[in-house]
Amino acid sequence: MGERNKKILLEQLQLPKNKLCSDCNAEGPEWASSNIGVFMCVNCSGIHRMLGTHVSRVKSCRLDQWADEAVQFMCENGNESVNVVLERHVPIYYRKPVPTDPQAYKEHFIHAKYERKEFATPGGCAHYETGMKEGMLWKRGKDGKQFKQRRFVLNMDEGTLKYFVKPDAKEPKQIINLTTLSTSLAPDKINHPHGLQLAFMNDNLTRQIYLYADEAKDAVDWYIVLRASSFHLIRKSYPQLSDAEVLRRLNSHQRKQGWMEKTGPKLTEPYRKRWFSLENRRLLYFEKPLDPYPRGEIYLGSRSEGYMVRDGLPAGQTEHGFGITITTPYRDYLLCCEDKEEQKSWINEIKSITTQPLTDQDNAGVSQA
User: Fold this and answer.
1) What is the pLDDT of residue 169?
2) Do 2-115 and 129-237 fold alike per CATH?
3) Is the pLDDT at 366 greater than 70, yes or no?
4) Position with higher pLDDT, 362 vs 143
5) What is the CATH number of domain 256-368?
6) Where is the Arf-GAP domain (predicted)?
7) Where do the structural domains in the chain lie, given as residue ranges?
8) Which of the chain's termini has less CB crowding within 10 Å, N or C?
9) Alpha-carbon gap, residue 74 to 325, rounded angstroms
């Protein structure tokens, strides 16, 4: 009986509808919720256990014993059928997690999906769309490594996110235009599980702010509320943009990051190690990963305008590793990676941008964040 049920479950896992984790789309799920009817990866199974057995009863498809009726329930349901119901009203600005997302984001999504059932009915996510949020977050100082608590106030009617040095301060330290704001979860970068990174335009420069919240849910709530507010404000301010174009901007923050070496405009200066971050059509480079402002920015236009990237350096240049040449109408930028795979990855990412024509979003100036 046990082997027969195990065989049936493993056959269910081979069906196209069940080949990916129900919650993060990881390949090869081997765990299941016997009372919900979904198959999941080992990581998401751990989060399901956190929900409690009154919400989700987790079992291994290979190692646990299954009753006939439980196996029949899994066959009658499965990921596709359950997700049609429980993810029916996921808002356009709310990203479903992927395997590489931070743990806090996966936990937030799974609690929202199964415990709070936010996506099962219309209006379940309305609390993310009020355009108002206020709270205390820990902010990294611009000139130092210390984090200090600051009061943040979101007001979508004003189109701003403000932060104040003191809780009772009348005047904000910074006013951020939401149409230039990009938000990302950054636990690894700032070495805190609830870390956030904001990028926005300030005096024609891309400013970075690094934050964390005391609670994981609060960090992800801020992330989603800021995405929702930016999405609705950009769509309202630039009605010519499609939803897909607005989402492309929201999802372009920190498209790729890493160390490379770079020489100066004369091409004779020594190569210096810089931290690079690809932000939509801007390749920013910093002296250190957590610097508030980049040392410089390389704008990446379209190939038809003379923007190109290739492997290797011009003749006469000594390569410090594996070279990359970015050609613009104004100058060449010479970069070097430590290994071939990184060189290939950077070239592919940059080429995917330069081979695309400028969109309405780019022309509208929304992508300046």
Assistant:
1) 93
2) no
3) no
4) 143
5) 2.30.29.30
6) 6-119
7) 2-115, 129-237, 256-368
8) N
9) 54
If you ran DSSP here, which 8-state letter would residue 35 be given?
T
Which ranges constitute the DSSP H helices of 151-269? 187-190, 216-237, 243-250
Whether 114 and 36 have beta carbons less than 8 Å apart is answered as yes
Pairing relationship of beta strands 38-40 and 31-33 according to DSSP bridges: antiparallel
Smallest Cα–Cα separation from 34: which of 60, 16, 14, 13?
A: 60
For domain 129-237, give the CATH number.
Answer: 2.30.29.30
Q: Which residue has the higher pLDDT, 42 or 247?
A: 42
Of 245, 250, 242, the C-alpha closest to 225 is 250
What pLDDT does residue 360 have?
A: 57
Question: Cβ distance 86 to 96 under 8 Å?
Answer: no
Q: Cα torsion for 77, 79, 85, 88, to the nearest 10°?
A: -160
The reported pLDDT for the residue numbered 94 is 95
Per-residue pLDDT tens digits for 280-306: 889 999 999 999 889 999 999 999 899
Residue among 90, 84, 63 at smallest CA distance from 5 = 63
> Which of 3.30.1520.10, 2.40.440.10, 1.10.220.150, 3.40.50.300 is the CATH number of 2-115?
1.10.220.150
Tell me how far apart the alpha carbons of residues 5 and 44 are, in angstroms, rounded to a whole number: 23
Euclidean distance between the first and final Cα of the chain, in Å? 59
Cβ pair 289, 304 in contact under 8 A: no
Backbone φ and ψ of 161, nearest 5°: -120, 125
DSSP characters over 262-303: E--TTS-SPPEEEEEEEETTEEEEESSTT-SS-SEEEE---G
